[in-house]
Amino acid sequence: MTSVSRDRDTTGDTTGTADLSATELLAGYRSGEISPVQATRDALERIEEHDGAVNAFCLVDADSALAAAKDSEARWQAGEPIGPLDGVPTSIKDMLLTIGWPTRRGSTTTPSEGPFEVDGPPVARVREAGAVLLGKNTTPELAWKGVTDSPLTGVTTNPWDPSRTAGGSSGGSASAVGLGMGPLSLGTDAGGSVRIPAAFTGTVAHKPTYGRIAHYPGSAFGTLANVGPMTRTVADAALLFDVVARPDTRDPWVLDVPRESAVDRLAGGAQGLRIAFSPTLGFVDVDPEVAALVAAAVEVFSSLGATVQSADPGFADPVEPFHTLWFAAAAKSLEPIDARARERMDPALVEIAEQGTSVTALDYLGAMAVRNELGTLMSAFHDEYDLLLTPTLPITAFEGGREVPEGWPDPRWTSWTPFTYPFNMTQQPATSVPCGFTSAGLPVGLQVVGPRHADATVLAAAHAYQQATDHHLRRPPLLG
User: Fold this and answer.
1) Residue 110 exposed, middle or buried by CB count within 10 Å (0-12, 13-18, 19+)
2) In DSSP terms, which residues pair with 161 in a beta bridge?
3) Is 17 inside a domain boundary?
4) Which of 37, 47, 318, 376 has the fewest CB atoms within 10 Å around its CB?
5) Cβ count within 10 A of residue 169
């Protein structure tokens, strides 16, 4: 296993294929104008040049990636690609089991020695589809919070301003795809963890309907937790979604194959959709610049043939029930870890785990009852509206290495992510797509939410918006 060095000057920039989407790479492979070896070398070069500034990777296996790329090149030359991702450089969040590589989960308490003989379901699907696996992306310890820093790997920062957080918990994946370190990544999301960093980094992420993408081993965060695609374009997110949205017998809650291909549905756009816009969900304070950019983005949907109305779903902030579920899950995660080992862990994770030990069965069932009520309310809401638009986040990226902005009145990450975790509770699909930049040059995300099982419609609407705008074409300052 060879890790790319980080001792080179990072002021330069890689040319070539690193800024191409997976869809564009695949078209180049088909025509013979691009080779998987070239694409993989360019992705590895981008990692070498820029990962020292953002810390998106905790493991890079250049030898394995190049060997896989050479195999892919031979298949393309023979006209026999093995799957829809053949030769596409891809990274994996270090929460997902991957053959040959440790899964440390951002923690010094997890083993670094193998053997590592199992792929988790989504990793198995991308490998079967021919993807070239580059390495593992950084995560906060046990993926517990909405920013990415850990005692094991340090702080992961933002391509648009490396003094600021990339968000989390899939911050490594977001920074990687945002900087062209492979166009595809697999992240996880139990409270916003693919959508938060997507919004902060100007990238795309999709949290699927719960059960749509198989997950093994099961997360301590239970039915809040999902695996989701992270990319620069919605078309790529749909491509990756179609590959990984497949049953796996190791996940007892997994759904059957979707009735509709997300890629095929993209052509339908947003034409004829009934869309609700809720700028605050009725209870969120939103930064004025963020609010203005999101409102301008919503206007685009009318030009795309949708009917857009202002409407709040009508629920109160479910943060306390969410905390009950979250803190109890943290307590379960830390249950096998002794006091001495906990001294090496993220102190805030240990703190919420200790709070979680006091959650009773009645408390937990009460939180589940609120969750059920919220799901019923949103199901009725979607009888009237096909989609709901909101900001992904009410603020922009803040200083790296902090759970909340300096001077923030609440110590927990959930206090600035009120648009994301409700839809983990309801198990609905939601995509974050970039919708502009503040005067400080920081990205802002628009969240597109649909009813359960409507992943393809959510992605199609987000794709139509992205095709009508050019925010995703803007390059982070690190790339010059």
Assistant:
1) middle
2) 158
3) no
4) 376
5) 33
Which of 414, 351, 335 shows the shortest CA–CA distance to 109? 335
**From the candidates 107, 193, 219, 278, which is the catalytic residue?**
193
Note the pLDDT tens digit of each residue in 309-321: 999 999 999 999 9
Q: Is residue 3 part of a domain?
A: no
169 is catalytic: yes
**117 within some domain:** yes
Question: Which of 167, 87, 163 has its CA nearest to residue 127?
Answer: 87
**pTM higher than 0.90:** yes
Active site (annotated) includes residue 93 = yes
Q: Which of 35, 72, 93, 333 is catalytic?
A: 93
Is the model's pLDDT at 111 over the cut of 70? yes
* Overall domain count for the chain: 1
Task: For residues 150 and 240, give the distance between their C-alpha atoms in angstroms, rounded to a whole number.
Answer: 28
Looking at residues 370-384, what average pLDDT do you find? 98
| Residue 42: C-alpha distances to residues 49, 50, 88, 306 (Å) | 10, 12, 12, 40
Q: In this structure, what token pair is assigned to residue 87?
A: 């030769």
Annotated active-site residue 185? The verdict is no
**CATH code (residue 123):** 3.90.1300.10
Q: How confident is the model at residue 358 (pLDDT cuts 50, 70, 90)?
A: very high
Report the C-alpha gap between 51 and 118 in whole angstroms.
27
